[in-house]
Structures are given as structure tokens and as C-alpha cells.
Specification:
single chain; 352 residues; alpha/beta; seven-stranded mixed β-sheet; three-stranded antiparallel β-sheet; 10 helices; binds pyridoxal-5'-phosphate
């Protein structure tokens, strides 16, 4: 740290992204990307857009916002597209959290929430998940803070149903409730249809997982017009051209090829079930995942050991050091072939 770093950030611990090895001989099951390439329509559209990189992109991203709105059955004015969903989360922390009644979220969840809370110097509360890693929604009633919930949650994959989310919304009428639906397409129920019923609801989604565009950096928020206006205030105060032309074009191409995305999601769901069954036969315990990853622990071999043995075998998974989950590994669901190799390696590790 230099002596010039602002006092505000001296204790900030930044988010640690999963490893992105340069050497792609790894089977990469550590950051929940899609194993499938982007849609051909996305690739073609991005290449055409590259020819206009001399010009600034449309700051309102009208074409893409319009297509997202049409796809999800909302109005364009209820959509804000961002540079990954991390950016809409950033905007939400900036827009809706005050210093003292800051933010609250589960103790085990997406690590970035805590980083944003620290970045903005907020007071925040980490609410413990139940013993089985599920969320007790009543813990969030009258939270007195902006609520952030990933649904399905990460890294557990456990989903809340829409009625449970509604209870949180009803019991926090004076605070925004952010539902992070990064993994919703793999088996959970979206809350997008509730935005006009609850003026305090912000739903965030991403093109990074189900839509095979993690490298494009594209996410979005869906909420009533008033909340979107507030988020736009932050956007236009930081980065008005937050979506580059190629990414906007690729996003549009992806949405025009909905069948491709749906087919890939079905494939992932099926391979997830196969993986869970195979892990179960080896004695692993998995949480009930509605996402594109499984969260698994072995009864006798430590999570850390499994992580490093897999790494030695050329397979990257994600291990978290936090006390409550250190026995687990989060394993992205890849292709069937990749998971067969994983299962074979795990058999060697657990039977040795
Ligand atoms: C992956 C992920 C995100 C953000 O992904 P982006 O690539 O920034 O869109 C947000 N929330 C959760 C829970 C995630 O797992």
C-alpha cells in the first residue's frame, strides 16, 4: 500500500475472483461459467459491432434494454443494463444504502456483498443461514437495512420460492430488497413478475452464467421506474457508457437465440442431476442445488484436500476457507464429458 491510498480504503479487503488460469489444459469448474460457447448470433453480432468501435455506444442501450424488456414482459423503463451484474449490485449499494441502516445479507453468500458494504463504509449485518444452509425468511423481517439475497444462493445453490421472497418484501416496506438471480435459469422461480406489486423490489440478472457471456460483462436490473431512475443517477455519475458496443450487440444476439440458451440450461440441469447422483454414491453430501454448480462435502476427506488433489489432477473447483463451509467444494457443472472425468478422479481420491 502506498502512503497515498485514501484513509477510507486502508482496511478494504477486495473481492477475490476465482482463478482464471492462462493454461487452459485445466478442466475449469471453479467460476460457474457456461461450458458452452456463446450463440452464433451473439458472435456474429459482436463482430459486426466491432466495425463501429470508433463511435461511443448508446448510453441508454435502448435496443438491448428493449429486447430484455420484451423477453421478460416488463417495460424498457423498468430495465437498466450494466457491466456484469456486479455493476448493478454496486449501483444498488451506492443508491439505496445509508451509512447506519446499511445492508444485510446471509453469512454464507456471494462474497461481493460484503466488499461493497465495506467499500461504501456501511454498517452491515450478516445473518446466519440455518444449520442446513437454508434461509429463514423471518430473520429478514423488519431488517431496517437494504436486503441482499442471492436466489438461488451461492455457493449453496439453495433456492427460495416466490412466496418466501414476497414475505421478505412485505415485511420490509421501507427498504429496498435486492434479489440477485444470477443462477435463476437453472431451476429457481424468478421474481421479475413482482416488480409492479412491490416498489421496493430490485431483481438482478446476468448474461454470465446461463447465457454463455461471462467474458462479455453484461448484467441488468429490473425494478419499478422510480428505482431504475435512482440507479441511473449513480450510473450517469460514474460510467454513462458502461456497456461497450460489442457486448450490447452480443447480448441482443443471445436473446434472439433463446432456444440455444434454453437447450444449454436443460443440458446443465441434467448433468447436475447426474453429478449429484454420482457424488452421492461416493458418499458425498450435496446441498439441494437449483444452480449450475453443486456444493459437496465428503464425510472423511477435508474440502481443502479434495480441492488440491483435484487441482493436481488438472481440475479446478472452488474451495472457500470460511469456517462453516470449509468442508465443502463448489463444483461448476460443465459438460457431461468434463463431469465424467471429475467423477473418475474423485473415485481415485476417495478410494485411495
Ligand atoms: C456470478 C455472480 C454474479 C455476478 O456476475 P457478473 O458476471 O458480474 O454478472 C452476481 N451474483 C452472484 C450470486 C453470482 O454468482
Amino acid at each position: 500500500m502506498s502512503r497515498f491510498l485514501s484513509e477510507r480504503y486502508r482496511n478494504l479487503i477486495p473481492y477475490t475472483p476465482g482463478e482464471q488460469p492462462r493454461n487452459m489444459s485445466f478442466i475449469k469448474l471453479n467460476t460457474n461459467e457456461s461450458p458452452f460457447p456463446p450463440s452464433d448470433k451473439a458472435i456474429g453480432a459482436a463482430a459486426r459491432a466491432a466495425k463501429e468501435l470508433n463511435l461511443y455506444p448508446d448510453p441508454e442501450c435502448r435496443e438491448l434494454s428493449g429486447k430484455i424488456a420484451e423477453t421478460l414482459g416488463v417495460k424498457p423503463s423498468e430495465v437498466l443494463v450494466t457491466n456484469g451484474s456486479d455493476e448493478i449490485l454496486n449501483f444498488a449499494f451506492a443508491a439505496f444504502c445509508d451509512k447506519t441502516c446499511g445492508a444485510c445479507f446471509p453469512d454464507i453468500t456471494y462474497g461481493f456483498y460484503k466488499v461493497f458494504a465495506e467499500l461504501y463504509g456501511l454498517e452491515y449485518k450478516e445473518i446466519p443461514l440455518k444449520e442446513d444452509f437454508s434461509i429463514d425468511v423471518s430473520d429478514y423481517f423488519g431488517a431496517g437495512a437494504t436486503v441482499f439475497i442471492a436466489n438461488p444462493n451461492a455457493p449453496t445453490g439453495i433456492a427460495l420460492d416466490r412466496e418466501q421472497v414476497e414475505k421478505i418484501l412485505i415485511n420490509n416496506p421501507n427498504n429496498v430488497v435486492v434479489i440477485d438471480e444470477a443462477y435463476v435459469d437453472f431451476g429457481a422461480k424468478s421474481c421479475v413478475s413482482l416488480i409492479n406489486k412491490y416498489p421496493n423490489l430490485l431483481v438482478t440478472q446476468t448474461f454470465s452464467k446461463s447465457r454463455s457471456m461471462a467474458g462479455g460483462r453484461l448484467g441488468f436490473g429490473i425494478a419499478c421506474e422510480e428505482l431504475i431512475r435512482d440507479l441511473n443517477t449513480i450510473k450517469y455519475s460514474t460510467n454513462p457508457y458502461n456497456i461497450n458496443k460489442m457486448t450490447a450487440a452480443a447480448g441482443l444476439g443471445t436473446l434472439e437465440d433463446a432456444e440455444y440458451t434454453e437447450k444449454n440450461c436443460r443440458a446443465i440441469t441434467k448433468v447436475r442431476e447426474y453429478t449429484e447422483a454420482a457424488l452421492g454414491e461416493m458418499g458425498f453430501e450435496c446441498t439441494k442445488s437449483a444452480a449450475n454448480f453443486v456444493f459437496a462435502k465428503h464425510p472423511t476427506i477435508s474440502g481443502e484436500c479434495i480441492y488440491s488433489r483435484l487441482r493436481d489432477a488438472g481440475i479446478l473447483v472452488r474451495h472457500f476457507g470460511a469456517e462453516r463451509i470449509k468442508d465443502y467444494n463448489r463444483i461448476t457443472v460443465g459438460t457431461e464429458e468434463q463431469m465424467k472425468i471429475l467423477i473418475e478422479k474423485l473415485k481415485e481420491i476417495t478410494e485411495a
